[in-house]
Design a protein that fits this description.
Distance between the termini: 52 Å
Radius of gyration: 19 Å
Strand content: 25-35%
Structural class: alpha+beta
Number of helices: 10
Order of helices and strands: EHEHEHEHHEEEHHHEEEEEEHEEEEEH
Largest sheet: 10 strands, mixed
Number of domains: 2
Number of strands: 18
Helix content: 25-40%
CATH topology of the largest domain: Tumour Suppressor Smad4
Shape: globular
CATH class of the largest domain: Mainly Beta
């Protein structure tokens, strides 16, 4: 596979290890050169800039977009190129690298860039959150409730200093609350009450935790994991069970498969939404799949593990209905 022209989008402030960042970017660019005729570096300077750069790259006729950063920078880039046929190469190097863990990419942009000739261009369904007149795409996951509240209240300076650890510090602080607010989720004709909904295309969450074990980037549906408990103590138990991949032992954690989720706002209070670790608004919202939303360069071994189509009889677990 050879490419004529690539735009290489990168976030110079993503992650904690900033010493030598520009040198690493140049080395990753050089690793692309045997496969790509011309590589143009495009440095982000503000929130949302990666989206604008990706839109421009598609409009300019580039036949490859590479993005270097964490899951948030990757998400911004996806939002600018969703629906196009331009392939995306993700070079993980940020605070959170769930995508790298999911597809077994090394967290070293130079190594992933050098592996470009062996990667497979694959059409990938995206998720899309629609609330009001706004919408946002996601590749990995959408979280509603407890985890999105953590993202909403996260200290950005703490994130810059502690990296992924800032999320865990935020989690510990958030768990000091006595009770979490409930909201309703509707899917496939049933309604469920919960305090945290994870609508996922990724097995992994917050790094190495496996919360949605049946999820897959290439699936045309989500695995939805609903947490029905409302106390801080219950969530401490959830974290412990997630660490040992035994969440299914909780009766108040339920697993579902569907391609569309409607999430209702409670009568009082705000419930927040996050996508791929980035804040994305408030309820109410609809989360749906977008078939063939993106062309992604993936390791062949991951593509070979493509899941079977969803059978509608499997769409909803027979648990905890209202």
């Amino acid at each position: 596979m050879d490419f004529r022209q690539a735009v290489f989008i990168y976030n110079p402030t993503s992650g904690r290890k900033r010493d030598g960042r520009e040198k690493m970017i140049l080395q990753a660019r050089d690793a692309l050169k045997p496969t790509v005729g011309d590589v143009h570096l495009a440095r982000t300077s503000s929130q949302g800039h990666a989206t604008r750069l990706a839109i421009q790259a598609v409009a300019d006729g580039c036949d490859l977009i590479a993005v270097c950063g964490g899951d948030g920078t990757i998400n911004e880039t996806i939002c600018g190129m969703a629906g196009s046929d331009v392939p995306l190469l993700t070079l993980p190097a940020g605070t959170a690298n769930v995508l790298a863990e999911e597809v077994s990419f090394p967290v070293d942009p130079r190594k992933v860039a050098a592996a470009l000739p062996s990667l497979v261009a694959t059409k990938v369904p995206l998720g899309r959150v629609v609330h009001g007149e706004a919408s946002r795409f996601f590749l990995l996951m959408c979280g509603v409730g407890v985890d999105a509240n953590i993202v909403y209240n996260l200290d950005t300076k703490l994130k810059e200093y502690f990296g992924q650890g800032a999320y865990w510090l935020g989690t510990l602080e958030h768990l000091q609350h006595r009770r979490f607010q409930r909201f309703d989720v509707r899917m496939d004709g049933e309604t469920y009450e919960n305090t945290f909904a994870l609508i996922s295309k990724s097995r992994r969450y917050a790094g190495k935790l496996v919360i949605a074990p049946d999820a897959h980037l290439l699936a045309e549906h989500f695995q939805v994991v609903l947490f029905h408990g409302e106390t801080s103590l219950r969530y401490v138990g959830y974290l412990a069970q997630a660490a040992t991949q035994t969440l299914d032992q909780f009766e108040d954690v339920t697993f579902h498969h569907t391609d569309r989720v409607e999430i209702l706002a409670p009568a009082d209070g705000d419930i927040h939404i996050e996508v791929d670790g980035e804040y994305a608004g408030r309820l109410p919202a609809v989360v749906e799949t977008v078939p063939d939303g993106l062309t992604l360069l993936l390791p062949p071994g991951y593509v070979e593990r493509r899941p079977p189509p969803l059978q509608r009889a499997e769409a909803v677990s027979s648990v905890s209905r209202l």
